[in-house]
Predict the structure.
Amino acid sequence: MLRLLRTTEGRILLLTLALASLALGVSVRNAVDRQRPVVAAEISSPDRAALARMQDAFASIADQVEPTVVSIRSVHVDQTSNQRPRVTPQLPDDEDLFGPFRDFFRRFQGPDMPPPAERSSGSGFIFRANGNDAYILTNQHVVEDATRVRVSFGNDENSDMPATVVGTDDKTDLAVLKVHFDRPVPPERVARLGDSSTVRVGQWAIAIGNPLGVGETLTVGVISAKNRELSGVQGIRSYRDMIQTDAAINMGNSGGPLVDLDGRVIGINTAIASPTGGSVGIGFAIPINTAKSVIDSLVRTGTVTRGWLGVETVSSNRELSPELQQYYGVSYGALVDRVRPDGPAAKAGIKAEDVIVSWDGKPIHNFSELEDAVTSTPPGRSVEVGIVRNKRHMTVTVVTEKRPSEIALQNMLRGQDNEGAPNEGVSPQAMSRPDALGITARSMTDADRQQAGAPSQGVVVTMVMPGSRADDAGLQRGDIITKVNGQVISSLSDYRSAVRAAGGKAVVMRVFSRLPDESTLDRTVVVRP
């Protein structure tokens, strides 16, 4: 499970119990160890010198970076809670029974009772100073919807001071805060930013932040991987090109720096993959180069304006596989799995299954390159876009628009109806047995076609055999297959014929899915042998 790293008050009790248990365990262990003979470990002089140099390096990094790191505390008030009806007992009119406490009780009874507040914490670091003002970079989810934000700087005399949210960007999950000192910000308070494009797997990585609210903490690990993509983190968040590290990061580390051996920030600690909520050595940081592309705009205007095309692809198709290259007749490009209705691409005539191969005269090799090209194009600009459709090259003119917020983009996908029973109103004759791909399918019914966003033709997947080719490709019960190897599927017999014609070779399908959050998805799926 992917988790963001903002802590809330409810976790502090668990931390206290865990620390108490740990202390008890250490006491028992020490009592046992005293009964064992002590064997001195011998370390050769060269090894000791190497370890000492490494130790000094980490200590120097702590001395250099920790003054730039802040702990962030935010208060989030649920303003909608007062709109819910309250059921409370009425106080009797007997003044002698309650006396002077009557007003006290009534404050907690009627509509004047304040809405509940959630307090959370995270981390951040100063990346810029302007006179007495310090600008702090953190994650947007640390301060999202916050009514009050305060930051602290360890034992500094200016510790625990209010902060202002200067700007936020939900696409990158980054935010900039500002604090005002009573004197110019010293240079040692400002972190040095590195270059995340030079990061190598295996190099040292040091994470600094305020995990679980215990205070400023430094942990050490390595860069485990690069260019990780995370989808559906706590609902709507998705991340690209993330840095993975095994340096221990936990709840409360969000927004803190990930630095290299030179003490330069290479990432912003953001999320962990964990079945328990604690660190298991799989943490993720936003590359600092991603932050560099937005912080100037956040400081200057409080927001980031991007161009928008209105096309999407699924994560498995961000790079065209050899099967898809052959199927679409291209050697590179960005496959369009879905076109947003009324978006710039739809208005320009771009369709699902088009492959975009150039943008404004520059080649597009994959979907990430397309996203970068589009977002860096100002809204309202006309752009020539090269596409391949049915293996034919053509050019369309697109007028980019301003990119909507991430929440608005998700709301565009929401369906209005639930899927209903997969086999409701279907006769046994309209259903198939498992085929060579491991799929059991049936014909579409009128009820299927009336579902929000559903295609008008295709076959409905009623079962996917575990471990089958279709299972490996990610097909699921309820999916609607609309095309097989280029053949439009109008009936169950069409589907059977297309699968038989493929033999044991790879099968390229167009598949419609309804997701758990009520959104819909059209995608190209390769079912491999």
In short: The chain has three domains: 1-9+53-76+115-302, 307-412, 428-527. The first strand starts at residue 2 and ends at 4.
